[in-house]
Structure of Nucleobindin 2:
Amino acid sequence: MAHCGLVLLSLWLCVQSVPIGVDNTKDKPQEELEPPQSADTGLHYDRYLREVIEFLEKDPHFKEKLKNANMDDIKQGKLAKELDFVHHNFRTKLDELKREEMSRLRMLIRAKHDIQEGNVDHQALLKQFEHLNHGNPDTFEVEDLDRLIKSATNDLENYDKGRHDEFKRYEMMKEHERRERLKNMNEEDRKREELQYEELRKKHAKHPKVNHPGSEDQLKEVWKEADGLDPEDFDPKTFFKMHDSNGDGFFDENELEALFTKELEKVYNPDNEEDDMVEMEEERLRMREHVMNEVDTNKDRLVSMSEFLAATKKEDFLQKDEWETLDQNPVYTEEEMREYEQHLANEANDINMKSAELQKQREQLERQQEELNAQKLELQQVDSKKQQQLFAGEIQSGIQISSLSKSLHMCNNWRNTETLSSNLKTYFLTNSTSCTQMLLFSVDSVQVQYLLLLPSLRCSGQVKVNKIQLFLLRGYVRL
């Protein structure tokens, strides 16, 4: 089983290297091993990828087909067709994994939609998730496996390039910030800063010889320093078995990079001000790519024992020239630096314009808010004035009613209904406004019905008699 997953795994999986032990020098019989535990590949669908592989390798039929497959068959999708023969239980689990991945992607799309306030090109976004067949969100089919293999192959082939581009931007930004600091210094401080910068550069460049990665001298140094063995006893086959950490018969990318640690320690020390650990990791990547280009003849991102032994017989294996480090090979040109600074200037200008536009919008909103507040205050003042006028009018009406009630009491025992009717009608017709209300007055035992025109308040479409007027009327007219 050591090899069964490696052809497919080599497309996208990285295996975590472990410390080297001298006890591994003894030859051991080939035995069945579990697939190496994969580390994060750096792909955004890494977890989904590893879980699919894990379940596919549990199926005996697929495992056997994978063991006998070659890289061309895998890349051309022939291996994916074997999914039709995978056991139902594993297919059910793969369906579940796909639904979980679809749910994760939908969540990412919703999050991006919220961040960009709805301005999301969904079709363009889905192209970033080509490792899935979005037309069938429920079941894991042959097309899904084919997409997964092709996406992982393509993405990992471009992964190193992406890392190089990111490192270049890092270096240019670091230089840009240094130049900006110099601009803000006076002449004396600027000279002092430049002198210190040059001294640190010279100090960093002064280091022991760095052997060519994958050369005899480099491997013998590992044999001596890491393994504690005599360089005169160096044996390529034994060396390979010792540093094949998981015993799968291949050097993966992480296992290769572990071989360069001693060389990198000659140049980089985390305690030194002049040494940048980000640059060290870029140097490690460059070394690994160099060895892969020289040794990995079938381009499966793995180095088999046969490929390794064949490389030790080549003339390049005896390479004595020193490896040129990053300080001898600048990652960008001055022209690229100018373009990058122009790009930063354009970005800053765009940000300033957007900031100014947002500031204008803010000021406009504040002015509109002030206008609304002023209008609200004006309406409140007008309403308050009307209420005061209405209240004053009602008080005046009450006084008049009081005066009228006194005259009513002068009627002979309240029997002169015509006089009462005439007086009330005259008063209320004189002081009426807009609404009518029928009121029934009881004067002693005599009931007289009058049509009263009273000021009113409108509420929910209904007309109601003003409470103050009724109070005053009841108080003085003795309802």
